[in-house]
Design brief:
By secondary structure, the protein is of the alpha+beta class. The protein folds into 2 domains: 21-226, Cytochrome Bc1 Complex, Chain A, domain 1 (2-Layer Sandwich), CATH 3.30.830.10; 247-458, Cytochrome Bc1 Complex, Chain A, domain 1 (2-Layer Sandwich), CATH 3.30.830. 41% of the residues lie in helices and 19% in strands. The strands form 2 sheets. The protein has a 6-stranded mixed β-sheet, with helices on both faces. It has a 6-stranded mixed β-sheet with strand order 9-10-8-11-7-12, with helices on both faces. Helix 9 (275-286) packs across helix 16 (416-426) and helix 10 runs antiparallel to helix 11.
């Protein structure tokens, strides 16, 4: 039998995260554009510095309603006409609000880019915010909240924020508002928030794709360049403080057959020199199926389908003159286990953390993590949207344009000892707030016996 010759792999090509070009339009808008040959769908991200901290008192969620309302009509088109115009371009437009500000995302075929940018410019320049559409968006948001509270994972995240941050801090409350605060939002509040915070002078737009014969700066100048607004100073970022005293909070769900676990604390953001080592160490601990937590809790004990450890930037910014950082990340371990194995699963999880502190990571774990994190980067950034999203994150977090490419270099250079120290510092066994969403009657006594912290039961 004759077989076809086995294909041979080619020589690896050097890869680096794409470097954008910067420009500033006449209206004050900052533009980052990145040519990606072959990417016929152009991705555009607009950063609007309108942090949740700036929402008026008792109107939590107004930034979210404003973001959603940007596509609900302009001075040229009502909501239905605007949606139809987007469809004719083959474009999608989305927007959301988070602690750093509002993000507006557009994806469109390169051949329709000028037309779609014109629609985006109208949405930013002159959103209509009609009363009826705002009322509908508020009603939709109110309908979403009970569903979110019914989700154990979402309920755990809400409780962890409430436990970690001071009661007066915006970070202690739901990003998209509560039933009470959202119910107070009307069109006047949305317009006021827009007028106070949305202007091209503080905004940044990121565009990635194959622009072909188009000149990106000219196209954006002809469209988004028509957006004008008053010059305002970016809002100040108050320091982030948190209480990570080790303790356990059980959110009681009578009859629950599973316990949702969420252990967390606040750590450094990407401006801290420890970030690359932390990324590597946390990945070794719980970033993939080969991590320590999964190996013990899933493969050896069969307690769970999976447990993950991660670091998520909440808000980022350079340190003040006094050295106080305005940024922070959430360091967390998340998963779910059957109710009847909650106690042994927590015991084994804490044992993994103590063993990590006592014995450290192995060189094999470190090498595997580097291969996974650095080796898959070219695949991760195959699409224009992935590149644009990361560039927009860098802008939002006040990082240099070459941050992501430098990060991969630093990951490859980080040793086992550094990664171990960062992971141990990220998850000290005695400084974690553990939120358990489950049946308190069945799990509380066992959790108390573990001695991992004071136990509080909430509804």
């Amino acid at each position: 039998m004759e077989f076809h010759p086995q294909p041979q792999s080619g020589r690896p090509k050097p890869w680096a995260f794409p470097a954008p070009e910067r420009a500033r339009l006449a209206n004050g808008l900052t533009l980052l554009h990145c040519q990606r040959p072959g990417q016929q769908v152009v991705a555009v991200e607009v950063n609007l510095p309108a942090p949740l901290d700036t929402e008026p008192e008792d109107l939590d969620g107004v930034a979210t309603i404003m973001a959603r309302a940007l596509s609900e009509g302009t001075d040229k088109h009502d909501a239905e006409e605007f949606a139809a115009e987007l469809e004719r371009c083959g474009a999608t437009l989305d927007a959301f609000a988070d602690h750093p500000g509002v993000r507006v995302s557009l994806e469109v075929p390169a051949s329709r880019l000028p037309k779609a940018l014109g629609l985006l410019a109208d949405a930013l320049r002159a959103p209509a915010f009609p009363d009826a559409e705002i009322e509908r968006l508020v009603a939709n948001r109110l309908d979403e909240i009970p569903h979110e509270l019914a989700s154990p994972a979402r309920r755990a995240a809400k409780e962890l924020s409430r436990q970690l941050f001071p009661a007066g801090s915006r970070m202690s409350r739901p990003r998209q508002g509560t039933e009470e605060s959202v119910a107070r939002i009307d069109a006047a509040a949305v317009r006021a928030f827009y007028e106070a915070h949305v202007t091209p002078h503080t905004a940044t737009v990121v565009a990635v794709g194959d622009f072909g014969d188009l000149d990106p700066e000219a196209v954006f100048a002809d469209t988004l360049g028509a957006w004008t607004g008053r010059a305002i100073e970016p809002p100040p970022m108050p320091p982030i403080t948190a209480d990570d005293r080790g303790r356990v909070v059980i959110v009681n769900r009578p009859g629950a057959v599973q316990t949702q676990l969420l252990l967390g604390r606040v750590g450094p953001d990407r401006h801290d020199s420890v970030w690359p080592a932390q990324v590597l160490g946390v990945y070794c601990l719980g970033g993939t199926l080969t991590s320590r937590l999964d190996r013990v809790l899933r493969e050896e004990k069969g307690y769970t389908y999976g447990v993950r450890a991660f670091g998520q930037v909440l808000r980022s910014g350079p340190a003040s003159a006094e050295g106080v950082s305005a940024g922070a990340s959430l360091l967390a371990i998340s998963g779910s286990v059957a109710t009847d194995v909650t106690k042994p699963a927590l015991a084994d999880l804490w044992e993994v953390l103590r063993t990590l502190a006592a014995e450290g990571l192995t060189d094999e774990e470190r090498d595997t993590a580097v291969r996974n994190l650095v080796g898959v980067a070219p695949l991760r950034y195959e699409t224009a949207a992935a590149v644009a999203g990361t560039l927009a994150d860098q802008v939002e977090q006040h990082l240099p344009d070459d941050y992501q490419s430098q990060l991969y270099t630093r990951l490859a250079e980080t040793g086992t000892v550094e990664a171990t120290a960062a992971a141990v510092s990220a998850f000290p066994a005695d400084r974690l707030v553990a939120v358990l969403v489950g049946d308190a009657e069945q799990i509380a006594a066992g959790v108390r016996e573990l001695g991992i912290g004071d136990v509080e039961i909430v509804d």
